[in-house]
């Protein structure tokens, strides 16, 4: 068996490759509008379809305890291959809103066997220093989420067809799945369950410390994916409001989202000095402040100020994500660790659908101030952290 130090880079790179499926549709949304005659509300619907597929997938994975009963590596591989195939379907002609919704839903379902299972693989290899390890892993998710925007930037400058974004992300997912299957065996700290037990799901929230971490995570998720989904929309709206501003939307969308990958890694290291809960609290508080401050930044005429602010928001909005997952994994019984990570992820992503649909609706009524409602999430998360027993 390879040493854990050699395994982590493989898991991180594979996670990056496979999670590029997540926002592949968002990166080419303007082209989807034109090619398949979609309306403006398609952004929220297609993004929510991925989230809904992920939620249903994680619920099924959790109730069947698949990540604890079967080899996580094989589960990751199968999910990556299926996700790549469903994602590739977007590139076919004669799609319409219904077929695109189905394909994005199935892609999200497949991601349920990638993101939380990747965390389970890391937890099976790292009994100590899990926060730092998950920092790298969530950082890979962030970069993977931003990567389609980076690809889209090159299709715009080199006149490559938009379908190359979809093809490339599918190929990356294939690659990531095969790397896990070939080179990442079951970890030394894995404790397999012999059979499915319904009480495994119920036990996840019987621990007060785990519940407190989960509530913090839920508040964080209210803000995270809606912010990511709206980054290119915010930039496009700003260029419309201030025609003299000159910047590339795809490139800066990639940078604003992708910079969070670095902050996830740094948060893991910082947490070893300040503590996991304190570091997560600071990040959640700062992101909540960004939500409230956003309208004032958007309404001023300096592109530099806007881009700098959005980059800072991109840093703090996701820095706490691996820390909350660390708290969940650290407080879950070892034999149901995979189930705990999966069920908490499932509920968190269910919250993103509510947030996405609410902001998507209100944005058409009030484009600027509606995004300040994202502050509800950090406020709830902080309340959950500090009204529960100390972690």
From TrEMBL:
- Keywords on this record? Membrane, Transmembrane, Transmembrane helix
For this UniProt entry, the molecular function terms from Gene Ontology, in alphabetical order, are: transmembrane transporter activity
- GO cellular component, as recorded: plasma membrane
Q: InterPro entries attached here? A: MFS, MFS_dom, MFS_trans_sf
Q: Which residues form the Major facilitator superfamily (MFS) profile domain?
A: 1-391
SUPFAM superfamilies in the cross-refs: MFS general substrate transporter
Question: What is the protein name given in its UniProt record?
Answer: MFS transporter
Species in which this protein is naturally found = Salegentibacter salarius
Organism classification, top ranks?
A: Bacteria, Pseudomonadati, Bacteroidota, Flavobacteriia, Flavobacteriales
């Amino acid at each position: 068996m390879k040493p854990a130090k050699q395994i982590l880079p493989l898991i991180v790179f594979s996670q990056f490759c496979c999670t590029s499926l997540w926002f592949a549709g968002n990166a080419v949304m303007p082209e989807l509008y034109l090619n398949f005659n979609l309306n403006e509300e398609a952004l929220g619907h297609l993004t929510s379809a991925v989230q809904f597929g992920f939620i249903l997938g994680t619920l099924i994975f959790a109730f069947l305890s698949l990540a604890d009963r079967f080899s996580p590596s094989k589960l990751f591989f199968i999910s990556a291959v299926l996700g790549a195939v469903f994602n590739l379907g977007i590139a076919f002609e004669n799609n319409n809103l219904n077929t695109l919704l189905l394909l994005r839903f199935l892609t999200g379902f497949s991601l349920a066997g990638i993101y939380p299972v990747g965390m389970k693989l890391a937890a099976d290899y790292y009994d100590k220093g899990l926060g730092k390890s998950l920092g790298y892993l969530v950082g890979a998710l962030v970069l993977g989420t931003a990567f389609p925007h980076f690809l889209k930037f090159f299709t715009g400058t080199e006149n490559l067809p938009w379908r190359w974004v979809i093809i490339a992300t599918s190929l990356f997912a294939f690659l990531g799945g095969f790397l896990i299957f070939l080179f990442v065996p079951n970890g030394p700290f894995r404790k397999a369950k012999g059979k499915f037990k319904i009480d495994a799901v119920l036990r996840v929230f019987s621990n007060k410390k785990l519940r407190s971490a989960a509530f913090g995570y839920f508040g964080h998720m209210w803000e995270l994916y809606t912010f990511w989904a709206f980054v290119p929309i915010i930039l496009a709206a700003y260029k419309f409001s201030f025609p003299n501003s000159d910047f590339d939307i795809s490139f800066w969308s990639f940078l604003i989202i992708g910079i969070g990958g670095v902050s996830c890694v740094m948060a893991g290291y910082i947490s070893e000095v300040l503590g996991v809960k304190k570091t997560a609290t600071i990040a959640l508080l700062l992101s909540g402040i960004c939500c409230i401050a956003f309208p004032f930044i958007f309404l001023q005429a300096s592109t530099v100020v806007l881009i700098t602010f959005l980059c800072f928001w991109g840093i703090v909005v996701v820095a706490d994500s691996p820390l909350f997952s660390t708290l969940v994994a650290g407080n879950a019984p070892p034999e149901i660790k995979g189930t705990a990570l999966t069920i908490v992820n499932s509920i968190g992503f269910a919250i993103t659908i509510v947030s996405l649909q609410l902001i998507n609706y209100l944005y058409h009524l009030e484009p600027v101030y509606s995004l300040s409602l994202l502050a509800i999430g950090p406020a709830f998360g902080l309340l959950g952290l500090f009204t529960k027993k100390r972690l």
